[in-house]
């Protein structure tokens, strides 16, 4: 296993919102990054998102280097074999256990045997993901928050067989990206989503039952509890489909207290997924 000082190249599986965000912060911290997705159009979209994000941060004078310098550290690819020289790989693919296990089995084939494999899963079992490999002790959860370049925290999740040195490396790596960390055992939802998802679902239920308008629901929670976003606004920013997937996983694992709100399911079925589709509980340009 590489120590932090030996990590030069970081592989990122997935060029979507989370993947390109992780790639961006790793490159900003000075790492060379290989970002991979299954189709070139997804890779291109991810690279475009990174360039836009870097431009916004540069306009606010929040970068120590030029956007061009940071961008040059990121290579996009559709070939998993391009992770052959990676010293650490972070998976940020679909929140689907079968998909993740297939990816980890493939990563084991294309990376050196001592390379740490991290997953950005927000609810799925680290232990079960790791079981698809013969290096379970080198698999760890690195749960970044969305949007990755802005949010200050990363949740480090330890699987049943995660080595303590790997856990320490995960903390150190995230901190080197400028993040603060906290640690969770491999229990459903970990710290964040175990508490966050029922809060969001209850906000949706209360709105659906006519307790308050969506604006007052969010305003009341922001001013009354000092959170930056209320439950409906936050759900739109996370993605209603992601909220539903997380809630369904927790419902299956922990019972009816995590049952997804009906209105959440209805909006996802209608394709109104929040900010990324232009409409969720609110409308976006």
Automatic annotation (TrEMBL):
Residues annotated for NAD(+) binding in this entry: 14-19, 37, 95, 100, 122, 146, 276
Tagged with keyword NAD: yes
BP-aspect Gene Ontology terms: fatty acid metabolic process
Protein name as it appears in the record: 3-hydroxyacyl-CoA dehydrogenase
Listed InterPro entries: 3-OHacyl-CoA_DH, 3-OHacyl-CoA_DH_NAD-bd, 3HC_DH_C, 6-PGluconate_DH-like_C_sf, 6PGD_dom2, NAD(P)-bd_dom_sf
GO molecular function annotation: NAD+ binding; oxidoreductase activity, acting on the CH-OH group of donors, NAD or NADP as acceptor
Annotated site location: Important for catalytic activity: 143
This protein's UniProt keywords: NAD, Oxidoreductase
Residues annotated as domain 3-hydroxyacyl-CoA dehydrogenase NAD binding: 9-181
Domain annotation 3-hydroxyacyl-CoA dehydrogenase C-terminal: ranges: 189-284
């Amino acid at each position: 296993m590489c120590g932090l000082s030996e990590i030069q190249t970081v592989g990122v599986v997935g060029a979507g919102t989370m993947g390109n965000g992780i790639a961006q912060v790793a490159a900003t911290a000075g790492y060379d990054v290989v970002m991979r997705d299954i189709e070139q159009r997804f890779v291109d979209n991810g690279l475009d998102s990174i360039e836009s994000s870097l431009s916004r941060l540069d306009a606010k004078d929040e970068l120590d280097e030029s956007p061009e310098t940071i961008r040059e550290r990121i290579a996009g690819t559709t070939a998993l074999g391009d992770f052959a020289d990676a010293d650490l790989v972070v998976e940020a693919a679909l929140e689907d256990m079968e998909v993740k296990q297939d990816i980890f089995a493939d990563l084991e084939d294309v990376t050196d045997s001592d390379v740490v494999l991290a997953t950005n899963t927000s609810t799925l079992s680290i232990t079960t993901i790791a079981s698809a490999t013969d290096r379970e002790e080198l698999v760890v959860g690195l749960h970044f928050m969305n949007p990755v370049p802005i949010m200050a925290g990363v949740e480090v999740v330890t699987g049943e067989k995660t080595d303590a040195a790997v856990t320490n490396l995960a903390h150190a790596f995230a901190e080197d990206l400028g993040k603060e960390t906290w640690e969770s055992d491999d229990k459903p939802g970990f710290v964040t989503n175990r508490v966050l998802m029922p809060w969001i679902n209850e906000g949706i239920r209360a709105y659906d039952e006519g307790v308050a308008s969506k604006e007052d629901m969010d305003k009341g929670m922001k001013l009354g509890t000092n959170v930056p976003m209320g439950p409906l606004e936050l759900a739109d920013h996370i993605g209603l489909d992601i909220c539903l997937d997380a809630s369904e996983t927790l419902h299956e694992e922990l019972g009816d207290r995590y049952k997804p709100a009906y209105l959440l399911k209805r909006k996802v079925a209608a394709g109104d997924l929040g900010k990324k589709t232009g409409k969720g509980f609110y409308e976006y340009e």
